[in-house]
Amino acid sequence: MTTSSLTSSSPSGSRTSLERSPLYPLYRVIGYMALIIAAAAVMLPFAWMIISSLKMNNQVFTVPVQWIPDPVQWSNYIEIWQKSDMFLWTRNTLFLSVVITFLQCLTGSFAAYGFSKMRFPGRDTLFLMYVATIAVPWQAYMVPQFQIFTEIGLNNTLWAMIALQAFGAFGVFLMRQYFESIPPELSEAARVDGLNEYGIYRRIMLPLAIPGIASLALLTFVNTWNDFLGPLIYLRDRDIWTIQIGLNSFIDQYNAEHALIMTGSVLSVLPIALIFGFAQRYFVEGVATTGLKG
Amino acid sequence: MTMATDAPAVREVQPGGSRKPRNAMRRRNTLIGWSFILPNFLGFGLVTLIPVVFLFYMAFTEWSAFGDPEFLGFDNFTRLIGDGSFQTSLGNTLYYSVFHIPLTLVAALSLAMLLNTKLRGVAFFRTAAFFPYITAVVAIAAVWSQLFSADGVINQILGVVGLDPGVGWTADSTLAMPAVILVSVWRDTGFFMLLYLAGLQTVPRTLYEAARVDGASAWQRFWNVTWPCLRPTTFFVTVMLTIQSLKVFDLVFLLTAGGPGQSTFVLAQFIYQKGIVEFEYGYASAGAIVLFSMSLVVTIVQFLVNKRIER
Amino acid sequence: MKHHVMRSAGVAIAAALTLAACSSDDGSSSTPDDTGSGSGDEPVTLTMSAWSLDSTPEFQLLADEFNAINPNVTVELQEYDAAEYDTQITADLSAGAAPDLYILKNLKYFATFQDGEQLVDVSDVADGVGEGNGALDFYEVDGATWAVPYRQDTWFTYYNKSLFDEAGIAHPEGAITWDEYADLANQLNDGLDATGSYQHSWQSTLQGFALAQTPGADLFSGDFSFLAPYYDRVLAMQESGAQTDFATVQTNQLTYQAQFGTQEAAMMNMGSWYVATLIAQQESGEAEDFEWGFMPAPQYDDSTLETPVSFGDPTAVGINPQIDEAKMDAAKEFLAFVGSEDAASALAQIGIKPAFASDAVTEAYFSVAGLPQDELSQFAFGTHETLPENPVSLDTAAIQNILNDAHSAILTDSVSVEDGIAEAQERVANEVG
Fold first, then answer.
1. By its UniProt entry, which PROSITE patterns does this protein fall under (chain B) (predicted)?
2. In whole angstroms, what is the distance from residue A267 CA to residue C406 CA?
3. What CA–CA distance (Å, rounded) separates C291 from C60?
4. Phi, psi for residue A143 in degrees, rounded to 5
5. CA–CA min distance C418, chain B (Å)
6. Which of C16-25, C44-53, C115-124 has the lowest mean pLDDT?
């Protein structure tokens, strides 16, 4: 880090020049207005989802857009539970998301420690290989991969999805970069204290990497939750369908139940929004507040 | 302050004492290193690496998904060079990436810095910023194509300043790509914002305080404290953004299906079309290898630049 | 036998790498289920692919009807995704995990499956199916038949009788030409709030007709000039407002069910599957209540008005070569059944247009409640020549993709009709084959 010139310490107040400005309240109001407009723009498609979920099927796509459903079809929210296996799909999706997120965070952060903090020949090459595979479109090697999975009997089981997603290069890469940004002095001190590498990973790095792990967990969770192509190829029996596969079954050869698809999509987004709402403090409390105190 | 130490020098210190013979220690380090990587690597190898290795073989064959591949040598690659669709898709992908990467990066970083403050209600805005990423792509495509339609909101706003193009963006061969880029930036910003938000937590607050005492302006503080500390995150974000841009597919496909004509036809769609739609898996693999190589080159360059700055 | 690309290369490494328990010995893993023994009275279970079981009763109907005649044979359905069926069945066939019998949705990939040795020669079955099944020929390659069609959709023109009355225009009485259709659409448009006609964004709504109807048109000739008059006409209709333009259909993602079902358009060219959909949607309230009928699709010129030419791909059942040899007889019997008049009558009664055509089948079809009973609808259903949308060749998918690009480019005015067609011809010459 090249910041040594800035680090000579002396006591001072913590108000920024902006905060000292007499116009500060005005800036605040403008800032909030900008944020609120931006938030509204950002939520618009979501609002459209909700509105569409309250329409009759043939009203979803029309010109001009009908922003107020008439009549309001609250029944869609009842029908989706009665007419489909939404409960089962949610259970399967939840199971997959939790298991995959757990495994991805565990094996990903473990491997990332090896890539970040250990030095051995071939490390960087192996790491680049990991990262580069992210660039290969899955559709291109989907068929041979499916053949392997079928050969070992994993196709048409939930295990296929777990194997498919729990060991992704993305998690390794994300965690390696996070470990890289944690100052090495901390692990060095622990090493001097006689802690071995596994101990340093467990006692020092993991607690410091909570924002990194939290973001990896959330992104893995969301990706698993919303994945369509993977389950489409691997999960065939009705009793192991996920939400996305289930919702796609509302599209048959010539028709689609757009309103019910939107109803299902709204229901499917809600848990993620809730998790994000609760989990976000973990993204904003990290080394700065815990690790380097004192 | 601790941050002043030279990081690489620290890492040169070998764990486990320095008296052991170099080779033994090296072996030991390799073993420990691999023990960390192995649990992930077992799954990764089976699920990703083997099929990808097979993909490299496929690229030199003709294979319809049935029967045995027929070896062709470099034919698929020479065919790619002369293939107009491939050239178009390559050009469109680069066009998309050149705008999508910097715009998303700047938007994500700015948003993360804004939402890392202690403003009231910031938790709500953080959640809102993440919504585009979790909203169903089908809904995103539906709403945005309507916003971009001939008499849609966007043209109406542009009409106020006399710039109404009078056509639906996604149905116009010159405006379709800008529309796709805008929607992509809008959608991906929340994703990368999250990574930057996590990265910002590694910036020690003491550094800011010290900088402030030294009389550094907000811009100087960003440039001298925040940006260097975010380097590992930025490396991750740029590599991921590059890869995601080069293999962009689902959003473009739902917004324009590659059209009108081939005006938003991208590389990943070329690969999808040749493989899954036209059953030319060998040829599709060759296209995938081009995509892979481009990403690899960019990643290696970024990796080396990153290493150099570290020293 | 089973061709596994990955068997040699990947699996050895895979097994060595982790899961050593790679137990399946060659050949036996093809069909995991029961009962090998076969002929006579031994119970046999055949598996067959299907999709959207809740809303597509035809598969279960075929299975049940067959079981009623052959009580010892059960056909068990394996459900696939309707929209992604081809991708899923390809993966299954490639990995040796596909069912004994599988559906060929249309002709687009028939050549690929046949060429890839994924179909059993069923010429012996075809011989017994009979003349009435006109679609059988489309599944013939090298003098042999590879699948037996049970369903043959064709394209009609749907028209809203109530809107015709409102505009004060007489109901059509027979097949018409495209020029007459365009005139009619303009007249309707002038007299109504609704548009005169609706054309969905699919390339087949235009190219399917042009290919089937234009004398001498050939998808593989590399000459697509036969499309030009069709595009000129549609562009003129978009221009006059008689038809919602392609860009609006695209950007607003309009659905044809809503356009015709909520009376936004007075006429629409659409496949015969929409008959059953419209009846169901009127019943559920999703579609408004109005009088409607269907007539033959518009014709190239007046020489074919007696026997109108339309297009549509037959849907067929084929046998997976990995089927247990002992089940082969039962599988062939099932194929003979799905192509027969008996199966056709049963399918017609649930509103499906079967591959086998006869007076009895037509009668069964028009017994469905809600079906328009006028003479023109009956004529449209019973009398037509239907040519394939996807003529059989390994190049079909690639050519169709190129023509699809031309379709969107021309209809959004990105290129002129002439340039769009020239570009498509150039691309086919350069990129296909």
1. ABC_TM1
2. 39
3. 31
4. -65, -50
5. 14
6. C16-25
